[in-house]
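Deadline looming. Please check this record:
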Amino acid sequence: MVTRSLYKLATSLQILLCVAFAIASPVSDTRERAALSSGRKTTHLVNVGICKFKLNDSLGGEIREYPKQDIPSAIYDAKLKRSSLPNAVIIDFLCDTKGKNEFCKRFSGLVQKNGHWVQWPHSDQNYWAPPETSFTVREMKSINAAGAISTIDDTFGDENKRARHLSFCLVSPEGNVLIGGSVVDSLSGNHRSVEPEVRKLLESIEFIENR
C-alpha cells in the first residue's frame, strides 16, 4: 500500500527504523517530560553526504553515520528513561542534491506547490491517504533551513503494533535536501508521543555546508 511505502523508506535503503517498546505502568506527564529533557545538552556535527549540519541535543542521544551507502545516511538514537511507549527517539537522515520536489516527493510524500508543502502520492498520482490514516502536513523551519513534516497512522496489521510515523523534508540554504523519518508514537497500550522532542531536534538543525 502507498501509505506503508511512504513511511517504510528506510527498508528500501537498508536503514533500520525502529522503536523499542516495553510493558509499562502509568506515570504523570510531568515526570515523563522531565525524563525526556534530563539528558546532558550537546551539539552533534553530522555529515550525511553533501549535507553537513549541527544538531542540538538535550536527550543524550548518539549519531551513527553510514557514508558508503548509495544514498549516504545517518541515524540519531536516544534511549529514554520512561515507562510509556515509545521509549526511544530514533531519527533517520538521508541527503541528496536532487531538486527538492523530486527527492521530497519520492521519499517523504511531500511536494511544494504554490509556495506551500502538501501531500503527494508515492506511486499513484490519483491516490491520497484516506481520512482514517490521520495524514497531516505542517511546514517547518530550522535555524537556517525550511521544509515540512508529515505524520500518518498505521491502519492495518496487528493493532498492538500500530504506530504513528513522522517524515520530514528540509532544504538547506545551498539547495541540498535532507529527508528522513521517525516512529513517534505507539497507538496502543500505555503510550505518549515523542513528536514534540523530534520536532525540537529537527528545528535545531543548522546547515554548515560552506564552513
